[in-house]
């Protein structure tokens, strides 16, 4: 916890006045300070010049951010532990993300039951759909065989 600042009684102790890092009082409306009213007036002027204020469009997702979003969506929806993203591929309207999930923990851990969930994320990062595509034992390979 930072040390408490001691108040000196010889200073001007305006309770709500602004102070610079040096501790000296700062003028309320200095040459570089802009009030919210000034900002609102400039925004209104720009809106009048262009008509309506345009909506900001999010940048399109890349594979890394789509994978992170897919992982988060599957973890939230299934309430199970996720192992990680196994594939991310671009599709026409967004991204197709495969996420590996631990369905059932067992002892030894090589006999855990895992599932792969496929989720569709659109270009803006919204979840469009998800489904479980397969379930398998951790020790089994991708196609049901051993290591």
Task: Kindly describe this structure.
The protein is of the alpha+beta class and 147 residues long. 21% of the residues lie in helices and 29% in strands. The protein has two helices and four strands. Strands 1-2-3-4 form a four-stranded antiparallel beta sheet, covered by helices on one side. Strand 3 (113-122) and strand 4 form a beta hairpin. The protein is elongated, with a radius of gyration of 28 Å.
How would you summarize what this structure contains?
The chain is an alpha+beta fold. The protein has helices spanning 36-50, 63-78, and strands at residues 82-91, 94-104, 113-122, 127-137. The protein has a four-stranded antiparallel beta sheet, covered by helices on one side.
Secondary-structure topology with pairs:
Blueprint (H helix, E strand, L loop, with lengths): L35 H15 L12 H16 L3 E10 L2 E11 L8 E10 L4 E11 L10
Antiparallel strand pairs: 1-2, 2-3, 3-4
Q: First CA to last CA: what distance?
A: 54 Å
Unreliable stretches (pLDDT < 50, length at least 5) are 11-16, 28-34
Please count the beta strands (DSSP E, at least 2 residues each). Answer: 4
pLDDT averaged residue by residue: 77
Beta-strand residue fraction: 25-35%
- The class by helix and strand makeup works out as alpha+beta
Strand order within the widest beta sheet: 1-2-3-4
Query: Radius of gyration over alpha carbons?
Result: 28 Å
Please provide the ordered H/E string of secondary-structure elements.
HHEEEE
Residue share in helix: 10-25%
Count of DSSP-assigned helices: 2
Largest sheet: 4 strands, antiparallel
From the spread of the alpha carbons, the general shape counts as: elongated
């Amino acid at each position: 916890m930072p040390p408490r600042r001691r108040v000196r009684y010889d200073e001007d102790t305006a309770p709500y006045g602004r102070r610079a890092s040096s501790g000296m009082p700062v003028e309320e409306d200095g040459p570089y300070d802009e009030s919210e009213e000034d900002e609102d007036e400039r925004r209104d002027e720009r809106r009048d010049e262009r008509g309506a204020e345009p909506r900001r469009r999010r940048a399109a997702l890349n594979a890394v951010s789509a994978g992170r979003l897919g992982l988060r969506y599957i973890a939230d929806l299934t309430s199970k532990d996720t192992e990680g993203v196994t594939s991310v591929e671009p599709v026409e309207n967004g991204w197709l993300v495969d996420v590996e999930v631990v369905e059932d923990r067992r002892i030894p851990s090589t006999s855990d039951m895992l599932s792969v969930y496929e989720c569709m994320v659109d270009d803006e990062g919204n979840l469009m759909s998800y489904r479980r595509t397969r379930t398998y034992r951790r020790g089994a390979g991708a196609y049901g065989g051993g290591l």
